[in-house]
Design goal:
The structure holds 2 protein chains of 2 kinds. By secondary structure, chain A is an all-alpha fold. Helices cover 65% and strands 0% of the residues of chain A. The longest helix of chain A has 32 residues, at 357-388. Chain A starts with a helix and ends in a 13-residue tail after the last helix. The radius of gyration of chain B is 17 Å and the shape is elongated. The chains are: A mainly alpha, B alpha+beta. At the A-B interface, helix 8 and helix 10 of A face strand 2 and strand 3 of B.
């Protein structure tokens, strides 16, 4: 390893950090576009809060909780702040892949994503203070603890010795976070949606699902393109170096899966519902991106397309299942991040260079453990918030809009639209 | 003096405006309205079919002197028509008087 290569690697990781940061704008726009005008300020406020608070919390303790170094495999802590500091700027810190500073800021950009996923699912009815409190606890504790089990070198990453069984496979595998990021957010989103209940007007008295169309589809589509761009950093940076072969393969698999997901979602939703629904197309692209995230470095291009196509189909089915279950997820966050996140993690045992029955079993065990931990902890946190400050805004506030009542502002003051 | 009110399709507005100019009806006011009617518009959003009976139309108010009444109505009937349900309606009523604020003129000289 030369200094030049170290510099190149670190530079790539910082570019990826910037791309992952940009994803927060993508999430903001997507969520804004798929909800109603009267709640726009509220959504933008939540998204700005998540990235700011997320970074600070990750600095205070999250990073040390997620990457504690040598630890018992379940829970470790390396100290408050950034204890390694300047000593982590040498080639030895991470085999010349990046410095400690880059490590922190790249992982910090990831951390806030888990709460952002929840934000979309609970939009238009959650109390702002309840949401902020929940995201601080979830990003500060739950996300880093789960992360430490695999990326931090915990028990999931050497599952065979942990279980004492002679598996051929080495351990649970999640390259860039289909489970560790997306499902962690997805489980919390599911629990939150169940505890919150649906928006008024989402289901009729007879229980029939009704449409609440989003108010700005161009903004939502811009969000999806930005997320796709950001995913080059999300997956590309998860190589943890600028390794020419793997990083370029990862960009190929990521994009092919996104494209496959979009096409399969639009075809299946068009055949099913007889209209070309761009919002399903968008969710399909995102489903493809989430689906490939766990194995972006393991898959061949053809396998990536297959993962994308299946993920896009899963999104369309899941959006309708969630409707049937009388759950209200305005932006399709549960379908995209939870369903495709789980699928993308399991598919490691089916396609790609690690495929095998043992690997599949380990993936299933990993998904189940994380599902239990995340949904139970999200349930406890949200339940306590519900009993104390309350989760949901008043009926009047919901009807007149969170912008007016929580913020006293209009998102589009002095702006009119032409309707045809 | 007559007040001619017309509810027309927004998509027919430019045609109606030009036809009115052609018969030298150059001044009128309009605004966009939402109404409820029999026409249902079918939509599908994220797999959920819904229809809305809220209909978007444009509302024109035209003040004309008595000798302009018939050709104004004829022009509106022709220019706003597509032949499909939902082409709109025309209402005609007597207008007692009109004043131009700047000059104080009244009657039909005030509306030209």
């Amino acid at each position: 390893m030369t200094e030049d290569l170290f510099t190149a690697n670190n530079l790539w990781m910082m570019i990826c950090t910037a791309l992952v940061f940009f994803m927060h704008l993508g999430f903001s726009l997507l969520e804004t576009g798929l909800t109603r005008q009267k709640n726009t300020i509220n959504i933008l406020f939540k998204n700005m809060f998540i990235i700011c608070a997320g970074l600070l919390i990750y600095f205070i303790g999250g990073f040390s909780l997620m990457y504690p170094g040598e630890f018992n495999g379940f829970l470790g802590f390396n100290g408050f702040g950034l204890p390694i500091g300047k000593e982590g700027t040498t080639i030895e810190y991470a085999d010349g892949g990046y410095t400690y500073w880059t490590d922190f800021i790249f992982q910090g950009m990831f951390a806030a994503t888990a709460a952002t996923i929840v934000s979309g699912a609970v939009a238009e009815r959650i109390r702002l203070d309840a949401f902020m409190l929940f995201s601080v606890i979830y990003v500060g504790l739950i996300y880093p603890i789960v992360g430490s089990w695999h990326w931090g070198g915990g028990f999931l990453s050497h599952m065979n010795s942990f279980l004492g069984i002679d598996f051929n496979a080495k351990g649970f595998y999640d390259f860039a976070g289909s489970t560790l990021v997306h499902s962690v957010g997805g489980w919390a989103a599911l629990v939150a949606v169940v505890l919150l209940g649906s928006r008024k007007g989402k289901f009729s008295k007879e229980g029939k699902s009704l449409a609440i169309p989003g108010h700005n589809i161009p903004i939502a589509v811009a969000g999806v393109f930005i997320l796709w761009l950001g995913w080059f950093g999300f997956n590309g940076g998860s190589v943890l170096s600028a390794d020419p072969g793997i990083t370029s393969l990862v960009l190929v698999t990521t994009s092919l899966s996104a494209a496959g997901g979009g096409i399969s979602a639009f075809i299946s939703s068009t055949l099913w519902f007889k209209n070309y629904d761009v919002t399903m197309f968008m969710n399909g692209v995102l489903g493809g991106l989430v689906g490939i995230t766990a194995g972006a470095d393991l898959m061949s291009p053809i396998e990536a397309i297959l993962i994308g196509v299946t993920s896009g189909f899963i999104v369309v089915v899941a959006v309708n299942l969630i409707d049937k279950w009388k759950l209200d997820d305005p932006v399709g966050a549960i379908a995209v991040h939870l369903f495709c996140g789980v699928w993308g993690t399991l598919v490691i045992g089916i396609f790609g260079s690690r495929a095998g029955f043992d690997q599949l079993i380990i993936q299933i065990i990993g998904v189940l453990i994380i599902a239990l931990f995340c949904s139970i902890s999200a349930f406890i946190i949200l339940r306590v918030i519900k009993k104390t400050i309350g989760l949901r805004v008043s009926k009047r506030e919901e009807a007149e809009g969170l912008d007016l009542h929580e913020h006293g502002m209009d998102a589009y003051a002095d702006f009119g639209l032409n309707e045809h | 003096m007559k007040k001619v009110e017309a509810i027309i399709r927004k998509s027919k507005f430019d045609e109606v405006k030009e036809a009115l100019h052609d018969i030298e009806v150059n001044f009128f006011s309009y605004w966009d309205v939402t109404g409820v009617g029999n026409e249902k518009e079918g939509h599908v959003y994220r797999g959920v079919a819904y229809s809305t009976s809220d209909i978007q139309r444009r509302y024109l108010v035209i003040l004309v002197s008595d000798d302009f009444k018939d050709k104004t109505i004829k022009t509106l009937m022709k220019a706003a028509r597509t032949g499909n349900v939902g082409d709109g309606k025309i209402f005609v009523s007597e207008m007692e008087n009109a004043y131009r604020i700047r000059t104080g003129e009244s009657g039909s000289t005030a509306i030209n």
